[in-house]
Specification:
The structure holds 2 protein chains of 2 kinds. By secondary structure, chain A is an alpha+beta fold. Chain A contains 18 helices and 32 strands. In chain A, helix 11 packs across helix 12 and helix 14 packs across helix 15. Chain B is α+β, with helices and mostly antiparallel strands. A 5-stranded mixed sheet of chain B has the order 2-1-5-3-4, sandwiched between helices. The chains are: A alpha+beta, B alpha+beta.
Chain lengths: 790, 164
């Protein structure tokens, strides 16, 4: 037998506390919620991308024997609910009143006795549409003759939404004008993608007509923010709204916004007096809920001939779809895109972002990344590789020459970010070691000599995660801070209540481990409560890798409050001054007399018992905290992808992938590695296959898993991971957050590898997703051959 | 119509429309919600159950068609409260995150191991390739199935080397 394994008390590879219910099929996802008398809703959606609604006839649907209610935009208008605010200070139609603005837009809502009947009744609704010209190409959105999509907005005379900039344009111009610099330019689109969590979005609304209390089970990554927004929009008093996010089948940013379907389920419950469930199907999920990216970027990079990067500029045309429903801090219309300077010490940087409306679904969610960081990382890491090719330098050498040095932290970028810590050279070096970079280059040279096309791609990213501070960052006026409450029961078992919400990240384990580390209460003795606004303190939720940086810090701080209080109780119990006590391994003991002490469990009993407590110390062992982060955290990573390309078919095989992440202190390395694995697969999907495309009539071409391809087990390799640890100096645990890093860093590594493989053909860039067709065409056009018609 | 099925060794019966898909029958009529639904096109495999020991996407089958067949769902994997080695493997190797694809993955793994008690990584990847996981990147699912292979009752491995 192997030696008995000591179970870690605090940080370490603890198996997940939430797993047993999932392993037995006993999780409770929204669609598993079944209430007495519950009815089912379904949404009628627009088949057209842009059309005026002439009339809607619901009479046949109303007569369906199983239908209980049919709701149109006009009905909602009567309740003042036809439109709702988005997370970006725009408005979005709940159900269309005047016209439809994207294919799949919500037009009518049916409530019926079962889900099949609700779908049947949709077929009975007659809508007369008058088609309008469509703008689905972002480049055409600002043309003089482009139809104005948002004519519902007063004063809106074009499809322009906003202009935003960061950095110093004059300085950038000066650097680019320098006669000695090499300048490389490239148009770099980041295609529209969709997070596509395996569980689609949905809700069960139960408005109690007697108490006036609304209970809403919903697929929400941010239940508290949702509760406040429902109160503001629907006029239901906030204390009468309970938002419950039960088990969530993946989120990845898709479950941050409030969708019309949620609102419709609430309206349906109010109208019928019964609970109403609405669960979208996969096509609805892909065609109507929050998309991500859709940035058309024009990049320019300037460097001295010896490889000293001096300036970076990017101008972005941002496609926001028909409603500006981007989910991000309200003062940042382009999210944190201005971290596009990446990991490099530059002389000048400037970016501009122009947001426009098109006849496409709304969204702009942070799909497994902090707001727009993925676009930024892709831009800079492609530009650096293009520069390396231009200078005929090894891409690693070019990066190493330009990294921010470890002695420069805290480092303020040219666009105003204060990076907290990092050792980029060390992280890159570790990735090179694991990959065997020199050997790979030798192998590549041998294969090239044989006419085989192997590519090695490198990327290095810096993320900015864990938003706020709340003075700078808010969503709909709600400051980005998070609360935590901790109760230690008389027997020393604890309950910690948090504001963030797991969608698979393992909060029930990680947060118990934080309490364990801080207080010495074993993780199995700590219950983590989350996802229910009646049971947890307020906070902004889980996205942008916020959970550990913000909520994790809140849990550390509330644990320390308990520890401090326990010290005062120990001083009474042991009859010594608090200053004479020392803390170790979950126990206060007398300095110099370690035998004399009490464990946190003993002190919990004392706190609830008959012991006379010191003056000013209340009984019991409870505390609460709100954590407002002083700064964001800055995880980084060095990634190396190895691909083989078949030039005859354009097929890319992702053969190896090395990911060295530095996310600061790792609370549960097993969970951290799982997060990295998942992000890598999604990043590979984005690089190679995922694309929500549209034709010129605004028809969505990625509306099912037959068209919107996500990776299976056969398209991704066995991930090879490594780590360096540079603690965050301002986070109480030194942790930085990791859930999204690998999705940020992997797309450029893979595209860089493909371009590297195609170097013999003279290919300098391939757009994502690098499908076989695109790769083949890139080879053909670089080789000067004409591609055959498709 | 009345539909009667043998599920996890028990006879279960409920009234449902003839068009009712097996996945909806299990979930909505029998409250066996461990079987999930994730797409409209039989691509995702969240709904996989075993029909006479073979993995089947229960969204592709009418409930009525399942009469006379042995159905196994995730709720039937554990025996007498003891986790199946596949379930234990997913726990040991962090083979699940959000848990939504997990029931289908585990049932396919069970069927694979019944046919092939010592599958290679490649064979495991092929077996689960008709199912989508958005969280794990598959590496730990493969490890989980290998863990189960090495810990099946009656197999020769002690398991100690597998933990290391």
């Amino acid at each position: 037998m192997a030696a008995t394994e000591e179970r870690p008390i605090g940080f370490g590879r603890l198996k997940r506390k939430e797993d047993p219910r999932f392993l037995r099929g006993q999780g409770t996802y929204v669609d598993d919620v079944k209430l007495p008398g519950m009815l089912h809703g379904a949404i009628l959606r627009s088949p057209l991308a842009h059309a005026r609604i002439v009339s809607i006839d619901t009479s046949a649907a109303q007569q369906h024997p199983k239908v209980r209610a049919v709701v149109t935009g006009q009905d909602l208008a009567g309740l003042g609910l036809a439109w709702m605010p988005t997370l970006s200070a725009d408005t979005q139609a709940v159900l269309a009143t005047d016209k439809v603005r994207f294919q799949g837009q919500e037009v009518a809502f049916v409530v019926a006795e079962d889900r099949y009947a609700a779908r049947d009744a949709l077929e009975l609704i007659e809508v007369d549409y008058e088609p309008l010209p469509v703008v689905s190409d972002v480049r055409r959105a600002l043309d003089d003759d482009a139809p104005v999509i948002r004519d519902d907005k007063e004063g809106q005379t074009s499809n322009h939404i906003f202009d935003w900039e960061a950095g110093d344009e004059a300085e950038a111009d000066r650097v680019f004008a320098d006669a000695d610099v090499v300048v490389v330019t490239q148009e770099i689109p980041f295609q529209r993608v969709h997070p596509a969590p395996l569980e689609t979005c949905g809700s069960v609304a139960d408005m109690d007509p007697v108490t006036g209390k609304l209970r809403l089970w919903t697929t929400s990554q941010a239940p508290h923010a949702h509760r406040t927004l429902y109160a503001m929009v629907a006029g239901i008093p906030e204390h009468k709204i309970q938002v419950i996010a039960p088990d969530i089948g993946g989120g990845f940013g898709n479950k941050v916004p409030i969708y019309p379907g949620y609102v419709c389920s609430i309206v349906g419950s109010i109208l019928t007096g019964k609970p109403v469930k609405w669960m979208e199907d996969r096509t609805e999920n892909l065609t109507s809920t929050g998309f991500a990216r859709d940035y058309l970027m024009q990049g320019r990079i300037a460097a001295d001939r010896d490889g000293r990067i001096r300036g970076l500029r990017v101008d972005v045309l941002a496609d926001h779809g028909a409603f500006n429903a981007t989910a991000q801090p309200s003062k940042y219309p382009a999210g944190f895109f201005h971290i596009f300077t990446g990991s490099y010490d530059l002389e000048a940087a400037y970016c501009s972002v122009r947001g426009v409306y098109t006849n496409k679904a709304p969204g702009g969610v942070a799909y497994r990344c902090s707001f727009r960081v993925t676009e930024a990382a892709y831009l800079v890491e492609r530009m650096v590789d293009l520069l390396a090719a231009e200078l005929d330098m090894d891409p690693v050498e070019l990066r190493m020459r330009n990294f921010i040095r470890s002695d420069q932290f805290p480092y303020t970028t040219k666009t105003g970010w204060e990076y907290d810590s990092g050792d980029y050279h060390a992280t890159m070096t570790e990735a090179l070691r694991i990959a065997g970079y020199e050997d790979l280059r030798r192998e590549q040279a041998e294969k090239r000599a044989r006419g085989e096309h192997m590519g090695i791609g490198v990327s290095f990213f810096t993320e900015t995660v864990g938003a706020g501070p709340k003075s700078k960052m808010d969503i709909a006026g709600l400051g980005m801070a998070d609360g935590a409450e901790l109760r230690v029961h008389p027997t020393g078992k604890a309950v910690v209540r948090i504001s963030v919400k797991t969608q698979g990240q393992g909060h029930e384990t990680t947060f118990a481990q934080i309490v364990a580390q801080e207080l010495g209460i074993p993780p199995e003795d700590v219950e983590v409560v989350h996802g229910d606004t009646d049971q947890t303190p307020f906070g902004l939720g889980t996205y942008g890798s916020r959970s550990t940086p913000v909520s994790g810090a809140a849990v550390a701080m509330v644990s320390r409050k308990i520890r401090d209080k326990a010290r005062l109780i120990a001083s009474a119990a042991l009859e010594v001054a608090p200053e004479d006590l020392e803390w170790e391994h979950g126990r206060w003991f007398v300095k110099g007399d370690p035998e004399k002490g009490q464990t946190i469990q003993e002190l919990a009993l004392a706190a609830h018992g008959t012991l006379t407590l010191p003056e000013g110390v209340e009984g019991h062992l409870d505390a609460e905290a709100v954590y407002d982060p002083p700064n964001l955290t800055y995880p980084c990573g060095a990634y190396i992808a190895v691909v083989d390309v078949d030039p005859a078919t354009g097929e890319v095989r992702l053969r190896r992938f090395v990911a060295v992440d530095d996310c600061g202190v790792r609370i549960n390395p097993m969970i951290v590695e799982g997060q990295v694995h998942g992000g890598l697969a999604e990043g590979a999907g984005i690089a190679l296959m995922q694309h929500i495309a549209f034709d010129d009539q605004g028809n969505c071409l990625g509306g099912s898993f037959m068209d919107y391809l996500v990776p299976s087990s056969l398209e991704v390799p066995d991930w090879e991971l490594g780590e360096t640890v540079t603690p965050s100096p301002h986070h109480p645990l030194g942790a930085k957050g990791v859930g999204e890093s690998s999705n940020v860093g992997s797309p450029p590594a893979i595209i860089n590898a493909i371009v590297d493989a195609l170097k013999p053909f003279g290919v300098r860039h391939v757009d994502m997703p690098a499908t076989p067709g695109r790769v083949w065409e890139a080879i053909q056009s670089a080789s000067g051959t004409t591609a055959p018609p498709q | 119509m009345q539909i009667t099925l043998t599920i996890n060794g028990e006879t279960r019966s409920a009234e449902a429309e003839p068009r009712t898909l097996l996945v909806h029958f299990l979930r909505d009529h029998l409250d066996l919600t461990g079987t999930h639904w994730g797409c409209d096109t039989s691509n995702c495999g969240a709904c996989v159950v075993l029909v006479d020991g073979e993995p089947v996407k229960s969204c592709t089958m009418l409930a009525a068609m399942a009469e006379g067949h042995e159905i196994t769902t995730v709720e039937g994997l554990a025996r007498d409260g003891e986790l199946d080695p596949v379930q234990q493997g997913f726990f040991e190797e962090h083979g699940l995150q959000c848990g939504f694809c997990t029931p289908g993955m585990m049932l396919t793994a069970r069927a694979l191991l019944n046919e092939n008690p010592d599958p290679s990584e490649e064979e495991i990847r092929v077996a689960i390739s008709g199912q989508i996981c958005r969280c794990t990147g598959y590496t730990n699912i493969v490890k989980a199935v290998r863990w189960a292979a090495e810990h099946e009752a009656g197999t020769a491995t002690t398991g100690e080397e597998a933990i290391a």
